[in-house]
Amino acid sequence: MTRWRNLFAGFAALTFVSACGNAPDSQSTRSLLKSLFELSRTARSAPPQATLTPQQIEQILAATPNSVMLFTSEKTKSQAPIIQIERNLAYRTYATGGRQTVTIKNGFVTATRGLGGDLMSSEIDQSLALVSRRSAGQATRVMRFLTGDDQTFEYNFDCVISVQGGQGGLQGMREDCRDGETTFINTYAVDRNGRIRASRQWLGNFTGYVSLALLRD
Fold it and tell me: Which of 92, 136, 194, 204 is the Cys-Cys partner for 132 at CB 3.0 to 4.6 Å?
């Protein structure tokens, strides 16, 4: 069992069902699914998580033409689809059924609302540029979180981006960041076009790590 393998399990069957249809990208979808599973084997192990059934995910995709992602919280062991409700240039805002929102820029989470201890804003362009190019290097990122007394606390992280294992056009990328005693490690699966198809990202001390998987762009 791996961190990413658990993430992909919830939507694997649905992707297969889509691939068996008449969509013009059936072969690429099938190939991508195989690559995601192979790449996930390089990630570290994690406890099992509850997943949505393929039938539930299929119903969600059928109900909306919008972009859909699968959002999994390691802290709560919960999983939910998030659907795009707004777009502002490169920034897409996704929402759960409970109106919690996650704002994403080309695969990187830049803000959250309604999760508790929210990520109010961030500056991630240096890390994003390296990860999207599937290149190693150094970067800085800023993350501003809401504290329990409604104040904003800012982290200034120094990050190292490294290239990990790859499979079938997907490249694993790792982001190691530190600000004093606070550290985190994010991982990304990036396709040949620089698009992040799946990731595991740290969203602060309160929320912890979440996994994101792109079901429909």
Answer: 194
